[in-house]
Design goal:
This protein has one domain: Orthogonal Bundle (Histone, subunit A), CATH 1.10.20. By secondary structure, it is mainly α. It has 6 helices and 2 strands, in the order H-H-E-H-H-E-H-H. It has a two-stranded parallel sheet with strand order 1-2.
Length: about 150
Amino acid sequence: MAITGVHKIEEIFKKSASLRLDKDKIKEVNDLISQKLYDLLIVAEENAGYNARDVIWLSDVPLTKAMKESMRKFKELEEELELQPILDHLATLPPLKYELEVELEKKLPEIAGTLIYILAMILKEISQDRKVSAEDLEKAKTIYNLTI
């Protein structure tokens, strides 16, 4: 199960970084974005617990200043992800201990889109070509995993 469709990832990569992805790399990108979104929610769940709440608030999600700036730039692309595929995907993962507040749930498509945008921008910096190579994607994944 994917958080968004192939076309949406291709479009975000094209609009934000002028990069092209082969279809075989899209699944890898989708898997990485899905994992990072879930990772952010795990940290948010911990933050909610530290604050003695049984609901995860948007403010619990560890969004850095750089991520918030990337969210602003992602919004400028005027690309939107659908909420339901994200919720469907999250339902396939180990359940979170706490529920998500409505505001956070509504923000999930923007957060996921921002994660795609950030990966595209990392690839833009390291790629020598408009077409993303397997080697470039591996380097980007390493950087992405170290920072998000």
